[in-house]
Design brief:
Layout lengths: L4 E6 L4 E8 L7 E2 L4 H5 L19 E4 L4 E4 L2 E2 H7 L2 H10 L5 H14 L4 H7 L8 H15 L9 H27 L12 H10 L18 H14 L6 H10 L5 H12 L7 H12 L5 H9 L20 H16 L5 H13 L3 H5 L6 H11 L7 H22 L16
Antiparallel strand pairs: 1-2, 2-3, 4-5, 5-6
Helix pairs in contact: 2-9, 3-18, 4-7, 6-7, 6-11, 7-8, 7-18, 9-14, 9-18, 10-11, 10-18, 11-18, 12-17, 14-17
């Protein structure tokens, strides 16, 4: 069978340009146009890179038409319901699910690496008392590069592994300290007797001295269903192919910058309301709607082409079917409502909007299904997390994906500095 190629014809001069077609293991093929500018003197034009494959990757696969998401070939449904977040971390970093011994070793290592250098803790004191946790978290991640400068030069697989485990372990502590600083509350240090996910909730909720109380007006005890819910959210956020923040991480990696600086850049990109901050917008909108009685009025506004109002948490840039992560969170949300006895007005508004959107021809025709942001914000609210912590939770889950993508880029023989071109239209 001959080599597959695509031929481009320039109708201005009749010139033909032939380029090889690269086949992936799944999904669309790609036309290798790396020599296009050299051959033709022209650029391809693709704002937002919606039709551009920027790299080869073995980490995550998405089929937006089918509503499919896989990490290292394993369906997200299997991972989110049958494996822990730490198992998923091992999968993304090592390419396979861990044995029981490997999982135990990873768990113990992350527990002991969760502590921050004391001089880094002092950095939090330089921030305003009301600083948004994301700004403090981003600064803390950047500062880690000063404490672990040796990670700028990684040679062995063990070097890469140590760098990855260190940032994954410390990110929940950075996020929890950033939150408590925003409240003016005493920092709660990690408890090595607690698991990765439980420890994060503990650092958010505990009183000085490490106490948790049953009193609903104070920091409440951590229930297993809450740990399970947050662990699932971490798993669903762990990686999502070449999204905006991952593209930023890879671009910064291409300059040779410190890996923790690249991760901090990803945090900054994730903060945007069009990306990781979308679930904050969902809760903000639900509160603006105010009551179930107002839902129909806002649905009508969303359907009015002359009204700028749009429902948050519906539709997705990639998924043209139901977001598979949203299906999982929908089931989890129903379980939380039942087990935590949650029946708030916010929940009732969300359920009414969901009910209409899944049955209304307007939304069905446009494939505006609820996405992960619609459900994650509601679940995080049910767990007692304020809106300011929604995106830091996303950061904690996504850190392993960013690190895996950073490592893959660094080890790729095709790695080169990112340098898109432009169509100049100025004077």
């Amino acid at each position: 069978m001959g080599k597959k190629t695509m031929t481009l014809i320039d109708n201005r001069n009749g010139k033909h340009y032939e380029y090889p077609i690269l086949e992936g293991s799944r999904g669309p093929a790609a036309v290798d146009m790396r020599s296009f500018y050299r051959d033709s003197g022209m650029f391809s034009y693709d704002p937002g890179f919606t039709s551009t494959a920027s790299c080869r990757s073995e980490i995550t696969f998405i089929d937006g038409e089918k509503g499919e998401l896989r990490y290292r070939g394993i369906p997200i449904e299997e991972l989110a319901t049958g494996h822990s977040y730490l198992e998923v971390c091992h999968l993304l970093l090592e390419g396979k699910l861990p044995t029981e011994e490997e999982l135990t070793a990873l768990d113990l290592e992350l527990r002991h690496r969760a502590f921050l250098p004391e001089s880094l803790v002092k950095l939090f004191e330089t921030m305003p008392d009301n600083a948004h946790p994301m700004s403090t978290l981003s600064a803390g991640a950047t500062a880690l590069s000063a404490f672990y400068y040796e990670h700028l030069k990684l040679e062995s697989d063990e070097d890469y592994r140590e760098m990855a485990h260190r940032i994954i372990a410390k990110m929940p502590t950075l996020a929890a300290f950033a939150y408590r600083h925003s409240l003016g509350a005493t920092y709660i240090y990690p408890d090595i007797d607690r698991s990765f996910t439980e420890n994060f909730l503990y650092m958010l909720r505990a009183y000085p001295g490490g106490k948790l109380h049953r009193d609903p007006s104070g920091p409440r005890e951590i229930k297993p269903i809450e740990v399970q819910a947050l662990d699932t959210i971490f798993t669903l956020h762990a990686d999502h192919e070449q999204n905006a923040s991952t593209t930023v991480v890879r671009s910064v990696a291409s300059t040779g910058a410190h890996p923790y600086v690249a991760i901090a850049s990803g945090i900054a990109a994730l903060w945007g309301r069009a990306h990781g901050g979308a679930n904050e917008s969902v809760i903000e909108q639900l509160r603006m709607i105010g009551s179930v009685e107002n839902v129909d009025k806002f649905i009508a506004r969303a359907k009015d082409p002359k009204d700028p109002f749009r429902l948050m948490g519906f539709g997705h840039r990639v998924y043209k079917n139901f977001d598979p992560r949203a299906r999982i969170l929908k089931t989890l949300q129903d379980q939380l409502v039942e087990e935590l006895d949650l029946d708030t007005e916010l929940m009732r508004i969300a359920r009414r909007i969901e009910e209409i959107a899944l049955s209304d021809e307007y939304f069905i025709k446009r494939k505006l299904y609820p996405n992960i942001d619609f459900y994650s914000g509601i679940i995080l609210t049910a767990l007692g997390l304020p809106r300011s912590m929604f995106t830091p939770v996303f950061v904690i889950g996504r850190t392993v994906g960013w690190v895996a993508q950073w490592i893959e880029f660094r080890k790729s023989p095709e790695a080169k500095i990112a340098r898109p071109r432009q169509l100049y239209i100025g004077k």
